[in-house]
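ok, trying the design again with the full structure, not the truncated one.
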């Protein structure tokens, strides 16, 4: 006991305890984040799909992302992005990019569904990442009310409360969500494309994502029962439209009145 007491008073004892505490904290954090991290569902694909996907990648994507998808100065590494990222980016036509810009623009898809799955299968072999979402979360039969609450808390500040989209900084924007397929909505939430944050299962559960999809489907199908949506921006756009219309009437009346006087 006396020897232990003397070692405890050693000048390096405090440093040793600090290092031990940091190691324990880091280890616990790694365990927790690993539990919450989405994993690539490589069992969805076959080895043949991954092989064909690699050939497509070398022919169409390696120029920017490099051989082995290790990344270059023109494109990031794809290790660990998961099959869901490929399904979203390629399936919506954002990749391959048409031109360099603030963000990738949506355009007609260059690859068909089978080729997109093959590319996703190849990228899924490069590291753990979000996999293709399960069909049970894409049926649009969740709770639209809960989905609306989740959307307004997590998404409306960029996409607008009516999912009509909105402008961001430096030429970037949050796109409108009308016409976006359910699988691409889910994949965007788990991969965080462009400037969008990642909403993993620790942030929004798969059931919550299903509810958000249901809410988006609901507001898209119900349309604009009040008439012209005017961008769904609420009193701002409505007031601007009214002000412009009234000002136009006043100017027109003034022109007519002065012409009559002369």
């Amino acid at each position: 006991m006396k020897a232990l007491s003397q070692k405890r008073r050693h000048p390096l004892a405090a440093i040793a305890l600090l290092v031990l505490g940091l190691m324990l904290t880091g280890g616990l954090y790694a365990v927790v984040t690993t539990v919450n991290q989405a994993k690539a569902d490589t069992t969805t694909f076959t080895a043949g799909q991954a092989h064909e996907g690699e050939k497509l990648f070398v022919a169409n994507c390696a120029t920017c992302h490099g051989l082995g998808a290790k990344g270059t100065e023109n494109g990031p590494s794809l290790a660990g992005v998961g099959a869901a990222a490929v399904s979203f980016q390629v399936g919506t036509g954002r990749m391959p990019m048409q031109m360099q810009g603030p963000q990738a623009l949506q355009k007609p898809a260059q690859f068909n569904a089978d080729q997109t799955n093959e590319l996703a299968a190849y990228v899924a072999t490069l590291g753990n990442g979000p996999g293709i979402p399960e069909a049970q979360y894409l049926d649009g039969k969740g709770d639209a009310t809960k989905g609306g609450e989740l959307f307004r808390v997590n998404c409306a500040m960029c996409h607008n409360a009516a999912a009509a989209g909105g402008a961001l900084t430096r030429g970037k924007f949050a796109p409108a969500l009308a016409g976006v397929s359910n699988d691409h909505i889910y994949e965007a939430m788990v991969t965080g494309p462009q400037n969008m944050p990642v909403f993993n299962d620790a942030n929004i559960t798969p059931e919550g994502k299903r509810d958000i999809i249901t809410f988006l489907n609901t507001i898209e199908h119900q349309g604009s029962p009040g008439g012209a949506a005017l961008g769904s921006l609420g009193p701002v756009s409505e007031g601007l439209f009214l002000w412009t219309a009234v000002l136009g009437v006043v100017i027109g009346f003034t022109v007519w009145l002065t012409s009559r006087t002369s």
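Keeping the full-length input from now on. The chain has eleven helices and two strands.
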